[in-house]
Every structure is written in structure tokens, then in C-alpha cells.
Design goal:
Blueprint (H helix, E strand, L loop, with lengths): L1 H34 L5 H32 L5 H19 L3 E3 L15 H24 L6 H19 L4 H4 L2 H63 L3 H18 L12 H15 L4 H4 L1 H21 L9 H24 L6 H27 L2 H16 L5 E3 L2 H18 L1 H10 L5 H21 L5 H16 L4 H32 L1
Antiparallel strand pairs: 1-2
Helix pairs in contact: 1-2, 1-15, 2-4, 2-13, 2-14, 2-15, 2-16, 2-17, 2-18, 3-13, 3-15, 4-5, 4-14, 4-19, 5-19, 7-9, 7-17, 7-18, 11-12, 11-13, 11-17, 13-17, 17-18
Length: about 525
């Protein structure tokens, strides 16, 4: 009965998401036909399906990869991850997705270096969208987290080279080989950097928080067992006394019991050996500050994590809003956020004093991981949605103006439509990737999941400032493996198909794009 009810609820949710996507796409097509002045209406409708299909699969692979650690650690359920993604991914896309999206000069194909007919450009971008989406769908079905950026670049490379070959253009000169080399470098650089930072961070957290808690808990448990044995030993001792000795000893114990709980009592005033022994046990217990890590290290870690996520939002997620904040103002804002998080976390940690230590610690890390997941989702929506919306925005502008421009305005309704497609894709095809990243690569809990997400954010930020070619997907996978190295449970066998998928993402998308381009040329 319960299984039948669950199945019915699942079908209802599936129907709601499907209806939401279909109705949004339908309205967007109605709006878009007017926006493009009904030029090449058939091409526009087909391009919309390709673009939405790409966004759907970005959600099923890239977003699923981002939320894998949160779900795998038990911090979030899949419906909760979906809710956060719905709010923050779509908000990031609509609010900070960029006033303009540079689609021509971004890739590794120098389309500016050749004369392009506007329709040829449309076919290149449509082929790239379809090819990248098909490859991402295959990777998601296999549970393989891959780079959506590499997929769309591979698609553009394939269709552009196909067009150049058909038109007698020098295809070798068309490729910016240095950028292609950067992509190859990222296959190694990204997971290695993510793994190193994650290993260093989580090993510190494990030593100073988790291992300390285990030591404190085991020490207190040992003292408790010793104290229990001592009481039993004393009971046997008391029963062996004569009646007169029992009276005398009971009088001393009554005296000690009266003064023992007084806050300023002097241990020298104790008369019975029983209470002197209890005092020694209680003194040993008092020397173990079991909540030391929870009250000192955890607020500090939360503060650093909050500042890192704030930096990622200010310098990466909100950069397209042009807020006009100077670096000084930005860093002061980051430090204020860090201070506020430290104070809030410290006060909250103090309120957990008489509760289970391990549960309290993981509860703190769960809250921290939700915060990092929200920040990641917003930044992801603001930036990586360009992999789907960028080429499509260029297509819309060409159909509307019959000319090619270097930068293309992105209407908010397009951002909203593609943002919804991201969430629906996460729900329908993202579960396998979530399972791979969250549980199959390494066992996760709230502390390790937080470490992986924070490490990935730190590497993404540092790489952005230093201009290093990295992939956020590859970084997070490396960060999870770093956790596995610390805990000695990394699934290295799984990295073989994942690494192979990384390497063939670009050429696979390129080949699919060639086929798509030839079909579009033949049909239109």
C-alpha cells in the first residue's frame, strides 16, 4: 500500500515538472516568435528545443554533480536539493546571469577570423547545442560527471570544422590550439588541485574536530565505566564491614554527600574514601573539554567557509550585475559576513552543550553544508547556464537581425525558461550522477561533504584569479577523492570510466555536432 502511494506521488511529481517545462517552453516560443519578427520560425522553434534540451541536460549532469556531496552526506534529500536548486539556480540565472553573453570569442574556434553567412552560424550553434546535450544525456545515464563547458566547446569545434571543410576554409588555422591545450591540461590540473585542497582541509577537520571528539567521547566513556566499577567495588567493601564500622562509615559518607555538591567545597574536607575516589573520577572528567572543538574550531571553520562562499558570490556569482563595489568594499563585506557567521555559529554551538557530541557536531556541519550548497547553486546558475543560453542567445539575435554580433543580449524570460529546464533536468536524469559523486566515489558525511564543497569553491576562486584552466566539475570530483584519501575509502576503479569520459567529452561532442550540422544543412 505504501509502495503504491509512493509510486503515485512520484508520477504526480513527474507530471507536474513535465507540465511546468512544457507550458514555460510553449509560452517562450510564443514570445520568441514575436521577438524574432517571425523570421525563420521553423528554425527558431527547433533551436528552442535544442537549447532547452541542452539546459535540461546541464541540470541532469552539472547541477547533479554540484549537489551530489550534499545528498550523499545525508544533509539534503533529493527533493530538498531540488528545492534549493530551484530557488538558487534560477535566481542566479535570472538575477546575475549576465546582461550579455559572449558566444563567439569564448570558445576555441576563431569564428571572427572567417566570413560567415548568418545561417551558417545558426547551424553551427544549433548543432553544438544538440551534440552537447546528447553527450550529456548519455553521460548522465551512465552516472558520469563531465564538463558541460567542454561539451559545448566540442560541439562548436565539430560543427565549425565541418562548415570550414565544406567551404574550403583552412580548418587548422581556425582552431585556437593554445586553448585546446588548456582544456587538456584541465583534465589533470582540476582534479589534482581539488584533491590536494580537500585532503589538506578535511585532514585538519578530521584531526582537530572529528578525532578530538572521538578521543573525548571514548575518554569520558572509559571514565564512566571505571566509575561504575569503582561503585560496585565500594558496595562490596561496605557490605563486608561490621555493623559498627558501617555506622561510622555511613556517617562520614553522609557528611561528604552534604558538602560534595557545594560549588566552593574543599576536597580536603572529605572524610570518606568513597567520596575521595568519586572526586578523583570527577576531576579527570572535568579535565576533558569534550566541547572544545565544537566551541572553537567549528565556528572558525564556518566563518572561513562563509567568507569563501561570499567571495565566490561577490567576485563570480554577482560579477555580471556590475554592483560598483571596490575591492576594499568587497573584502570588508566578506569579513563582516565571516564575523557574523562566527558569532552566530558560536552562540548556536553553546546551546548544544548538553546534547550528544557527535550529533551536535554533524548538525553544525549540516547547516554549514546547506549554506555552501546554496552559494554554489547561485554561482552555478549565474555562470554555467551560459553553456546553454549563450549559443541560443546568439541564434536568436541572428534570426532577429540577420547579422552576427560578438555579444548577444539575453532576455530575462529566456533565462527563466532555461533555468526551469535546469531544475527539471536535475529531477529526471540527475539521480545517477548524484549517486556517483555522493556515495560511489567515497563515503560522505556532513563534515566531509562540507569539506569537499568548500575546497572546490576555494579552488574555483583561486583559479579564476590566477587564470588557470580548470573545470568546476573535475575539481569537485577531485575534492571527493581527496576525502576518500583521508578516510582511505576512495573508489579508484570508478575513476577509470570517469577519466575516460572527461577525455572523450570534447571529441564525442565534436563528432555528434558534425552529424547534426550535415543533417541541418540537408534539411534547411
Amino acid at each position: 500500500m505504501a509502495q503504491t502511494q509512493s509510486s503515485a506521488n512520484l508520477k504526480l511529481i513527474n507530471t507536474v515538472f513535465a507540465a511546468m517545462l512544457v507550458s514555460m517552453v510553449g509560452y517562450f516560443i510564443y514570445w520568441g516568435l514575436g521577438y524574432t519578427h517571425y523570421n525563420h520560425s521553423g528554425l527558431f522553434i527547433l533551436a528552442t528545443f535544442f537549447g532547452v534540451f541542452m539546459a535540461f541536460n546541464v541540470g541532469g549532469n552539472d547541477i547533479a554533480n554540484s549537489f551530489g556531496t550534499s545528498v550523499g552526506s545525508g544533509t539534503l534529500t533529493i527533493p530538498q536539493a531540488l528545492l534549493i536548486a530551484a530557488v538558487f539556480e534560477v535566481s542566479g540565472a535570472v538575477i546575475a546571469g549576465g546582461e550579455v553573453t559572449d558566444t563567439i570569442r569564448k570558445g576555441i574556434v576563431d569564428l571572427n577570423g572567417m566570413h560567415l553567412d548568418p545561417m551558417q552560424f545558426v547551424f553551427i550553434m544549433m548543432s553544438a547545442l544538440l551534440a552537447a546535450a546528447l553527450w550529456l544525456l548519455f553521460a548522465s545515464h551512465k552516472g558520469l560527471p563531465v564538463s558541460t563547458t567542454h561539451a559545448i566547446i566540442g560541439g562548436i569545434v565539430g560543427s565549425a570544422l565541418c562548415m570550414a571543410t565544406l567551404n574550403g576554409v583552412d580548418s587548422v588555422a581556425l582552431i585556437q590550439w593554445d586553448k585546446l591545450g588548456e582544456i587538456a591540461l584541465s583534465w589533470i590540473l582540476s582534479p589534482v588541485l581539488g584533491g590536494i585542497v580537500s585532503y589538506l582541509l578535511f585532514s585538519r577537520i578530521k584531526k582537530n574536530v572529528l578525532d578530538y571528539n572521538s578521543w573525548a567521547g571514548n575518554t569520558l566513556k572509559g571514565i564512566k565505566l571505571e566509575k561504575k566499577a569503582y561503585k560496585e567495588e565500594h558496595r562490596l567493601f561496605f557490605e563486608a564491614l561490621s555493623e559498627s564500622e558501617k555506622v561510622e562509615y555511613a556517617t562520614k559518607m553522609a557528611h561528604d554527600a552534604q558538602i560534595y555538591d557545594e560549588p566552593d567545597f574543599d576536597p580536603e574536607e572529605l572524610q570518606s574514601e568513597y567520596y575521595r575516589g568519586l572526586y578523583r573520577f570527577d576531576s579527570r572528567k572535568g579535565e576533558v573539554d569534550s566541547y572544545k572543538a565544537l566551541h572553537s574550531w567549528v565556528p572558525f571553520i564556518a566563518s572561513v567557509g562563509g567568507m569563501m562562499i561570499a567571495a565566490m558570490l561577490i567576485f563570480k556569482g554577482l560579477k555580471n550585475l556590475h554592483l560598483g563595489m571596490s575591492n576594499v568594499n568587497s573584502f570588508l563585506t566578506i569579513f563582516m559576513i565571516g564575523a557574523a557567521i562566527w558569532m552566530g555559529t558560536f552562540v548556536f554551538a553553546k546551546s548544544l552543550k548538553r546534547k550528544d557530541l557527535d550529533k551536535s557536531t554533524f548538525q553544525m556541519f549540516s547547516w554549514m553544508q546547506v549554506f555552501t550548497a546554496c552559494g554554489f547553486a547561485f554561482s552555478h546558475g549565474a555562470n554555467d547556464i551560459a553553456n546553454a543560453i549563450g549559443p541560443f542567445a546568439a541564434i536568436m539575435d541572428v534570426l532577429r537581425t540577420n547579422s552576427i554580433t560578438a555579444q548577444n543580449a539575453v532576455p530575462p524570460i529566456a533565462m527563466l525558461t532555461f533555468g526551469i529546464a535546469l531544475i527539471v533536468g536535475l529531477w529526471f536524469v540527475g539521480k545517477e550522477v548524484i549517486k556517483t559523486v555522493g556515495t560511489s566515489l567515497a563515503e560522505m558525511h556532513p563534515a566531509s561533504g562540507f569539506s569537499a564543497e568548500l575546497s572546490a569553491a576555494a579552488v574555483v576562486m583561486a583559479a579564476s584569479f590566477m587564470g588557470l584552466p580548470v573545470s568546476s566539475t573535475h575539481i569537485l570530483v577531485g575534492a571527493v577523492l581527496g576525502i576518500g584519501l583521508v578516510n582511505r575509502n576512495a573508489n579508484w576503479k570508478l575513476m577509470k570510466p570517469i577519466g575516460l569520459a572527461w577525455v572523450i567529452t570534447l571529441p564525442a561532442a565534436a563528432v555528434l555536432s558534425v552529424v547534426s550540422y550535415l543533417v541541418l544543412q540537408a534539411v534547411f
